[in-house]
Amino acid sequence: MSDKTCRFCRSPLKHTFVDLGVSPLANSFIKENQLSKMEPFYPLHTYVCDQCFLVQLEEFESPEHIFKDYAYFSSFSDSWLDHAKNYVNSVIDKFKLGPHSKVIEIASNDGYLLQYFKEKNIPVLGVEPAENVALKAMEKGIPTRTEFFGKVFARQLVVEGLKGDLIIANNVLAHVPDLHDFVGGMKQLMHPLGVITVEFPHILNLICQNQFDTIYHEHFSYFSLLTVQEIFKAHNLEVFDVEEIPTHGGSLRIFAKHEEDRSKVIHSNIGKLIEKEKSLSLHRLDTYQKFYDLVKQTKVKILEFFIQAKKSGKTIVGYGAPAKGNTLLNYCGIGKELLPYTVDRNPFKQGLYLPGTHIPVKAPDMISETKPDYVFILPWNLKEEIMDQMSFIREWGGQFVVAIPEIEVL
């Protein structure tokens, strides 16, 4: 593996984290007229760097190909909108933001978050490369640039006189193949006394909660605080606070500043979380290497459940069409014979087919019509919200199933 090098520290990548075989791009949904055409599959093999402990995938497809026309719209999850609103209220108060401030969000999606700043008369700018998604934000009156973010585009914004008092990058750092270009761009774009906040799934939870399905080609990297600190430090940025948040099965929200900015104190949360990561050996290679065995055992248990249900004449259908669900279904080899359809609230996914498995995506009413024995929740991070929305399945004795961290009937 000596020809592969770490995208942060450039060390040779020699150690497997987990190998999920081959899989299509997790958000490359299939239209009916494409079902008979050949679909590209790529290795879903993650490595861990033995120097900086960054877990990463190779780049098989460019971000331009993956994200130019994207099927994920943030506004279709009520709990995600609540999370965005709470974040906005928190940072406005914490950093005394107002009409004099400028908030710039990178990967701003459909304006799900910036709309709450706009409501408070705080000037905003979204940067969103997916044209179809950016259009929805602009329809809400959110100024949005359809560009991929990096140093070149950051310089362009600075020349236009646009610097951010708050730069937001939620759930995008993992999607960036060139970390130095992205973090360097944020450095350029931030006001001298500004703040960067970044949210990303915490690899501590991926390992401890067996969240292997959060590995897919759109996620190039998987981070600990230990590693992220080093990435930001390489660009003269200092992480001064961190929060553990429940989104995406357990994420981190970090707050960063220019190293030379002395107006902000380093919060004790940083040292506490670093100690937590070290106590769980995230600075040791064998912690990462042991994970693969657990994933293989989980695959067997998931398949055993589906096969036993099929033998017993039980019906299982899916709820949701998230990227993580496509990783799980393709890795486990679960197709239409075991899961005849899944449903999703997002009308842009309805009528399409899941990549690889070609399981059809229906509207949620289909569950009331077919009355399945089990509803398999693919976005397990939203299971409480989904179980509440779909509680009526109890009327005919239906039950919910999740597979992460292990197969469980709810």
Automatic annotation (TrEMBL):
A molecular function GO annotation: methyltransferase activity
Domain Methyltransferase putative zinc binding: 6-67
SUPFAM superfamilies assigned: S-adenosyl-L-methionine-dependent methyltransferases
Record keywords, A-Z: Methyltransferase, Transferase
Keyword Ribonucleoprotein: no
Superkingdom, natural source: Bacteria
Pfam family, any one: Methyltransf_23
Keyword Methyltransferase annotated: yes
Family matches, as CDD domains: AdoMet_MTases
Annotated ranges, domain C-methyltransferase: 246-405
Positions in coiled-coil regions: none
Record GO biological process: methylation
Protein name, UniProt field: Class I SAM-dependent methyltransferase
